[in-house]
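Q: What does the predicted 3D structure of Phosphatidylinositol N-acetylglucosaminyltransferase subunit Q look like?
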Amino acid sequence: MIKDGYINIVNELRKINFLFKRILLYDAVCAKLDQIYNKRWSYLLIDFLVGLSLFLMMRNATFVNRFAENCEIYIMLIQRLIEWLMGAPGGLKLNKPLNTALGSFFIYHITLWRRYLYILRPLIHFTALSFNYASLFGISISLAVLYDSISLFTVHVFCFYVYAGRFYQLQLNGLISLGRLFRGKKYNPLRNRVDSCCFDKEQLLLGTVAFTIFFFLLPTIFTYYVVFSSLRFIVFVVQSVLLSIVRQFQFNRCNDEESGLMWSVFKALKCVLFGTLL
């Protein structure tokens, strides 16, 4: 009867996998149910003992009360970083109108993020407590809560990275297309190839002006892209470390090469270098 109950729970969770495929807590709970169903008591015992040790070490810690304050400090640091970019970062002379527009755009999102955290302030305290008491169910559950909390409270970093990445891709695609114009080439989307094409003087003049504008605006866009992609990369590395630890404590799911720490970091670095979204 108990075994049938576990089977039903796992089947119901798998039915809604498409909703929770990016939530690590869901995967950790499913893995723990699989271990219970397969009677892997030694794995469960190791997971529980490590989690209990973490709970005893953090029982008297003050991070729960300071978690909301640290979130506010984190927002202030991001805002100061954007204000620094709006000046002359590292002595670089960026395009002032575009720099001001981008800085105001991101600072506006910082304001929205403050309101978002103000609404979620009770959830922040609950999340900190959940991370502490989730250790009683095993270290994998506790780290899964921490992983999902990082995803929740760094949404603005991901949004900044997406915005800067889209701007950067637009600049690169524009420069590549206009570079083909000077060589008498044009991309043919129907055949997915570059064909020869004849352009008149007006088109060449307009292309020259557009290429010049795109070229001189590229350093400003690239600066924002480097900064926000670096922040996103740091968050991704931290989450990859947590994911790797959780996979190690799941034992039966740690053999996937693509879920390894080094492989994940390599893919993230490749995405950042080539301007693709992470």
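A (community wiki): The structure tokens above were generated from the sequence. The beta strands are 185-188, 193-196. The chain is about 75% helix and 5% strand.
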